[in-house]
Amino acid sequence: MLYWLTLLSDGGDFFNLFRYITFRAGGAFLTALIFGFIFGKPLINMLRRTQGKGQPIRDDGPEGHFAKAGTPTMGGLLIVGALLTSTLLWARLDNPFIWMVLFVTMSFAVIGFADDYAKVSKQTVAGVSSRLRLLLGFAIAGIAGYWAAAYHPEHLQAQLALPVFKNTLINLGFVFVPFAMIVIVGAANAVNLTDGLDGLAIMPVMIAAGTLGVIAYAVGRVDFTEYLDVHYVPGTGELLVFTAGIFGGGLGFLWYNAPPAAVFMGDTGSLALGGALGAIAVATKHELVLGIVGGLFVVEALSVIVQVLYFKRTGKRVFLMAPIHHHYEKKGWAEPQIVIRFWIISLILALIGLATLKVR
After folding, report:
1. Which of 93, 73, 74, 80 is nearest to 32 (CA)?
2. By CB atoms within 10 Å of each CB, which of 77, 168, 248, 346 scores lowest?
3. Partners of 161 in the beta sheet?
4. Closest Cα to residue 156, out of 48, 283, 337?
5. DSSP per-residue string spanning 49-95
6. Residue 284: pLDDT above 80?
7. What's the whole-model pTM score?
8. What is the 3-state secondary structure of 189-212?
9. What are phi and psi of 246, to 5 degrees?
10. If we measure between CA atoms, which residue out of 267, 244, 183 comes closest to residue 28?
């Protein structure tokens, strides 16, 4: 919205700053951060009043989690609200990729909210059926896949770009949209599975979002893409503003979610943020790099898949408990120890993902 202040500029005044994506990204970050600080406490108080007993705790979960009974959930509303406000205020609203990513984020937030509401209102760990959640998620992701492909340059449409390998593209044809659906839904559910300890999911999401924001800015500038030998996708640079909103909103939320958490993110936040990461990866043609940058989420999701498949086949467990962060809880690791070590792993993976821009 504020971008249109450039119409008042003669090219050498304050209003000219709004032409620059980096300036508006800084504004989005500060707006989202301030939003979190202003509305965080009132939102938490409201959630406590309306939810009563808070988020239900699994009976078969780690013993330390029973002390968290009564903590409200749906804290993702704070992040989503901050992200939506900052993006609408600072991004160019004539950019199709901004609207595509916002569509995915808000749609998955609605699914997550319905799931959280069902859990809280019925005081059960079973919310909306997983089948319905997946069906709705794939429908949303399918629309987003078509949307992104329609605005990709013609020579990149339905193509899969490989990291590291220079100018290498794989033509997926009609499979591109189903592939994009798997990326977006997979990312949403992987972040959702990671959100099991105070502060565990939000920092890796912020790190991944910041990394994807840098990638989006780079592939959206023809001079950068020529230097880095990556594919130029016009318009994606504007997604830096969106990811800055995630970072600012995430910091505002972390203020209240740091151990011991005053509020849980809930599916409202985890599904929305995971879907957003997947949508950005599809928009920027960096779907495979997301698997590196978000490697922690991949490992969390794989630990659940391996556990389920192995148990069905043998009746035994690979991990003491899945997702894998619960395995380390069962082994006696303290919660802050797990969280901080997982943060460090996320940062290392993000740096490796960034390195793929130049390693050709």
Report:
1. 80
2. 168
3. 169
4. 283
5. HHHTT-S---TTS-GGGGGGTT----THHHHHHHHHHHHHHHS-TT-
6. yes
7. 0.95
8. HHHHHHCCCCCCCHHHHHHHHHHH
9. -60, -45
10. 244
